[in-house]
Design brief:
four-stranded antiparallel β-sheet, disordered N terminus, elongated, 312 residues, five-stranded antiparallel β-sheet, Immunoglobulin-like, alpha+beta
Length: 312
């Protein structure tokens, strides 16, 4: 039987569940895979979590179990502190853990298999602030300032949209909106200007969009409606560059699933505008056909679909 293991995605989120002024849990998310690296899709798993206060003696402060179900991508979430206690540990309740007394670690077991130990960093000290009598606003501010490393995976719903690309650290990447911003709109604002929106790669669409809107002004055209979009409460959306658009198309299936689950909609099979101009003239820009994946240049006056993106 293959040994199962976890790939931690956003191991300890900075969001905390509050009960009055004292936070009662830490959001936790992971992707479950088998020994071959294949995700464990749509499976029920038993997760045991142990908060350890001393790795030399393996002294357990708190231990709990969760029964979780993975989704189509092997992803599951839970809240540390809201599982079923095993009664193992020297703390009677999760909120009575003395976080400030020593360094603390989290040990994860899945279906009885030890997955390893990870040190808590700044989130537990925000929990300690609750023990010191801080109100929930103060604690939330401490949590927001946490330097705890967070990683992301393609298909997650976060940062206002769906993650469709991440860099090698897993801490930076791109998300797209959960819905189209237009089902047919021109690239330009009525004039074929050479705005030098030539960037093609990751994060390049932001520069392209600034150039386009700076030259074309306000109006009903692709880059401008992306720049005006405020989905998820964010105001830094832009029209994707050519390769950013291609990454969206490559991951369209998982994007569609997450988008629909969060009130959005699927990509259409039609053409979507990129923000990248053709480099030989000022009358064409790059489009991608989401049915076949084909990219081609099209007149800026043609109407195509639009899906905004943003960086994190």
């Amino acid at each position: 039987m293959k040994k199962q293991f976890l790939i931690f995605t956003s191991v300890l989120f900075c969001a905390i569940t509050f009960a009055q002024s004292v936070p009662q849990g830490i959001n936790y998310q992971a992707v479950a895979r088998d020994a071959s690296g294949d995700v464990l899709m749509n499976q029920t798993l038993t997760i045991q979590l142990s908060v350890i206060s001393d790795t030399t003696t393996s002294a357990i402060s708190w231990q709990e179990t969760h029964t979780v179900a993975t989704n189509d991508f092997g992803l599951f979430t839970l809240v540390i502190g809201q599982g079923t206690t095993t009664t193992v540990g020297n703390s009677l309740t999760f909120d009575s853990i003395s976080w400030g007394a020593s360094n603390h670690y989290i040990q994860v077991e899945m279906n009885g298999v030890d997955m390893g130990i990870t040190q808590f960093m700044s989130v537990p000290y925000a929990l300690q602030a609750g023990n010191l009598g801080a109100d929930s606003t103060m604690v939330a501010n401490i949590i927001a300032a946490s330097a705890l490393s967070q990683t992301s995976v393609v298909g997650q719903y976060k940062y206002g949209g769906v993650v469709f690309w991440v860099d090698g650290t897993g801490q930076h990447g791109l998300v797209c909106s959960i819905e189209d911003q237009s089902s047919g709109i021109q690239w330009y604002n009525g004039a074929n200007l050479d705005v030098k929106a030539m960037r093609e790669g990751a994060f390049g669409g932001a520069s392209n969009t600034e150039r386009i809107t700076g030259a074309q002004g306000s109006g009903a055209y692709a880059a401008f409606i992306c720049a005006q979009y405020t989905g998820g409460g964010y105001g830094d959306w832009y029209l994707p560059a050519k390769e950013e658009l291609n990454q969206m198309r490559l991951n369209k299936t998982i994007i569609n699933t997450t988008a629909i689950a969060n009130g959005g909609s699927s990509f259409t099979p039609a053409g979507y505008w990129s923000s990248t101009e053709n480099d030989v003239d000022n009358v064409n820009a790059w489009v991608q056909f989401f049915y076949t994946g084909l990219q081609w240049i099209s007149s800026k006056s043609v109407s195509n679909d639009v899906r905004a993106v943003r960086a994190f």
